[in-house]
Amino acid sequence: MSAVLNTRGLKAAACLAAAFSLAVPASVWAHDPGLSSLEVRLAPGRVLVTLSLADADARVVASQTTSDLQAFALDSIELLLDGRRLTGVIETTATERDSGTNVSMAYDRLPASRLTVRSAVPSRLTRGHRELLTIRDAGEHLLIERMLDARLNSADIEVGADGQPQIGSGQFFLLGITHILGGYDHLLFLAALLLGVRRLRSVITIVT
């Protein structure tokens, strides 16, 4: 009888442990690979860039590189206009309690039709590190939001002759797809919508 109770007790404990493991975020169990942000703003005559690193990532940079954080930022971030690489200069470097270390850079604008932003930061930090790239216009309107990693490390945007971003309906459609695929909450919401759908036509309508 005691053996049966012990078996039942073990099974109950196993179920509780499994439920607890599902309820606790994965970040509690696994080492956080890190998340940085790269903000790009298309200002008149200039491109302004801010790289934000958490304190832990800033320490990794200090321990793994022979240069300082400013040199790391200039070397890791690459901006190209129609394939021509721009030269950046450091404007400010600040460490804040909430946002970590922020390095602000400025690049001179050249007449061009296409801007490419490329970042080597994810490949130079902890394996699995990701970087949230946002590109905004001079009015702070969001143009592109993309999650970069060691493999997918760049984004492009068309710029008109007047220096303002040109985004057509096709680019908006691709931006929407990228935005949905870049967030697990969006995918879960989409999956919930599809749970009760059985017809292919309905699936295509909902996904679209």
Account of the 3D structure:
The protein is of the alpha+beta class. It has eight helices and ten strands. Strands 5-6-2-1-8-9 form a six-stranded mixed beta sheet. A four-stranded antiparallel beta sheet has the order 4-3-7-10. Strand 1 (35-43) and strand 2 (46-53) form a beta hairpin. The chain is globular and about 60 Å long. The model is unreliable at 2-7 and 13-31 (pLDDT under 50).
Q: What is the residue-averaged pLDDT?
A: 77
User: What structural category do the secondary elements indicate?
Assistant: alpha+beta
- Share of helical residues: 25-40%
- Number of extended strands: 10
Outline the biggest β-sheet. 6 strands, mixed
SSE pattern: HHEEHHEEEEEHEEEHHH
Distance between the termini: 59 Å
Radius of gyration: 23 Å
Beta percentage is 25-35%
Uncertain stretches of 5 or more adjacent residues: 2-7, 13-31
Strand line-up in the sheet with most strands? 5-6-2-1-8-9
Enumerate how many helices there are, as a single number.
Answer: 8
Shape: globular
Would you summarize the structure shown here?
38% of the residues lie in helices and 32% in strands. By secondary structure, it is α+β, with helices and mostly antiparallel strands. A hairpin with a 3-residue loop joins strand 5 and strand 6.
Indicate the topology.
Elements: H1 2-23, H2 26-29, E1 35-43, E2 46-53, H3 55-64, H4 69-76, E3 77-81, E4 84-85, E5 88-96, E6 100-108, E7 114-119, H5 121-124, E8 130-136, E9 142-148, E10 154-158, H6 169-181, H7 184-194, H8 200-207
Could you list some keywords that capture this structure?
208 residues, globular, 6-stranded mixed sheet, alpha+beta
